[in-house]
Amino acid sequence: MVPLYTCCPFPSSKALQISPSFLLLSSRNPKFLPFTISRILRAISISTSAAKHEEPIRTSYAGVQLEETVDETKQGKLRLDSWISSRIQGISRARVQSSIKSGLVKVNGRVVDKVSHSLRAGDKVNCVISDLQPLKAEPEDIPLDIVFEDDHVLVVNKPSHMVVHPAPGNANGTLVNGILHHCSLPTVASSEKEVLYDTEDMSDDEQDIFHGASAGPASVRPGIVHRLDKGTSGLLVVAKDEHSHAHLSEQFKQHTIQRVYISLTCGVPSASAGRVDIPIGRDSNNRIRMVAVPGLSHHGRARHAASRYKVIEVLAGGGSALVQWRLETGRTHQIRAHAKYMGIPLLGDEVYGGTKNMALSLLCPRTPPYYNDELSRLVSRLERPYLHALVLGFEHPHSGEKMRFSCPPPPDFGEILNHLRKIGIEKPISKE
Fold first, then answer.
1. pLDDT digits (tens, 9 = 90+) for 195-216
2. 93, 142, 235, 360: most buried, per Cβ within 10 A?
3. How far apart are CA 12 and CA 143, in angstroms?
């Protein structure tokens, strides 16, 4: 008999000063929400789509050459990978980084293999985009925070800043590398298709399966059933056999997986609770960012996306809020894009507007002046979007027992939250 689990060890960190009452998770009557499944150890396969509307969409960039001088009007320094990405319409920075590391980029006639190399106005850049190469995931002895494990499933508390899948520029140190070692599995390799950064993430039905390089029995290949952004912390379930993967996938299809997130936001939603039903598509001006666009389509590429939210606490005089999210769909960067659409980007989310300047502009006017120095120090330490996968619930694929796990946010989240609470905390009046 498998019991209902609620656990999360933190052996190396101090206990967080967070009252369980702030979560308001409705554990007495949990809601199970839909989420689109992914396949075993997937990585995204892209048809690059950020090209100008009058240009054909490229499906391969192999052999594309760039010979250009950095614009004299540009001020200061520019990263080599960022600049090349901006000059070749629609290409991913991961693909550019792979080309740089392969020695296919010259600056002023000299080969440069450092992706963060600084360019100056007047530098002459010569670049050839490399062929796509299979990505290999090698087993690595990486410490994993295992919340639960049996012969069939593995529940992991992913730390922030850990990439889930190997990708160009992130070939090592990923969750997949650690799981392969933990489960004593052989190297796996992706198909020869372009793979996005984990920081770019993807919706779950846009991904491509990993194939075993050292075949091994299919029944022991681990399956990442869903995923989190690089900067997002929290709970993931991994299937350890084909039957478990198929069963968990079916639960995602039938909308019986429970997933609850919490975030810290810049500002407070105008309504303390609600539902956001706005399609999400890739931003044509910035391919690592998604955009929520009202209407049925966004250049034919936006997809239905719905999120439910609830303000748990109003913090620092209304400069921030602790918000709970329940997903009805599983689109790329869904919470981040919907939060931006609502005018409350996640604290620390530089991609979606939750910048340090934004945070200070909202916090400082709403708090006493003697907190200004503390706020400045606090905001200067923001390193990621403050989003945490708090609750994960599913039916065990073999026993059929209901399993539910919760895991408090990591120390960096808790530290920011406690500082904001000290400045000011209010409980909103719920309208649910």
1. 333 333 333 333 323 333 333 3
2. 235
3. 12
Query: What's the CA gap between 267 and 344, in Å, rounded?
Result: 5
Task: List, in sequence order, the alpha helices (H) in 191-328.
Answer: 242-253
Are the CB atoms for 66 and 88 separated by under 8 Å?
A: yes
DSSP code at position 394: E
Structure-derived torsion over alpha carbons of residues 183, 184, 185, 187, reported in degrees to the nearest 10: 120
Give the CB-side neighbour count of residue 194, counting CA atoms within 13 A: 24
343 vs 247: CA distance, rounded Å:
38
Distance of CA 34 to the CA centre of its chain: 18
Q: How far apart are CA 190 and CA 179, in angstroms?
A: 16
Tell the residue number behind the tokens 């295992």, with chain if given: 146
Strands 146-149 and 153-158: antiparallel
Q: What burial class does residue 285 get, using C-beta atoms within 10 Å of its C-beta: 0-12 exposed, 13-18 middle, 19+ buried? A: exposed
180, 137 in Cβ contact below 8 A?
Answer: yes
> 309 near 325, Cβ under 8 Å?
yes
Q: pLDDT (tens digit, 9 = 90+) per residue, 253-306?
A: 777 888 999 999 999 999 999 999 999 988 877 777 899 988 754 445 788 899
pLDDT tens sequence across 327-386: 888 888 999 999 999 999 999 999 999 999 999 999 999 988 988 899 999 999 999 999
Beta bridge partners of 122: none
Give the burial string for 338-361 (b: 16+ CB within 10 Å, else e).
bbbbbebbbbbbbbbbbbbebbbe
Give the DSSP H/E element, type plus range, for residue 88.
none
3-state secondary structure of 103: coil
**64-129 and 146-187+204-425 share one CATH topology?**
no
In angstroms, the CA 225 to CA 162 distance is 17
Residue among 204, 229, 241, 349 flagged as catalytic: 229
CB distance 409 to 425 below 8 Å: no
Q: Which element (helix H / strand E) includes 84?
A: helix 80-87
Q: Report the pLDDT value the prediction gives residue 9, as an integer from 0 to 100.
A: 35
User: In this structure, which topology does domain 146-187+204-425 adopt according to CATH?
Assistant: Pseudouridine synthase (3.30.2350)
Q: Partners of 165 in the beta sheet?
A: none
pLDDT at residue 188 is higher than 70: no
d(CA 208, CA 193): 8
The CATH fold of domain 64-129: 3.10.290
Domain spans of the chain, in order of start: 64-129, 146-187+204-425
- 71 is an active site residue: no
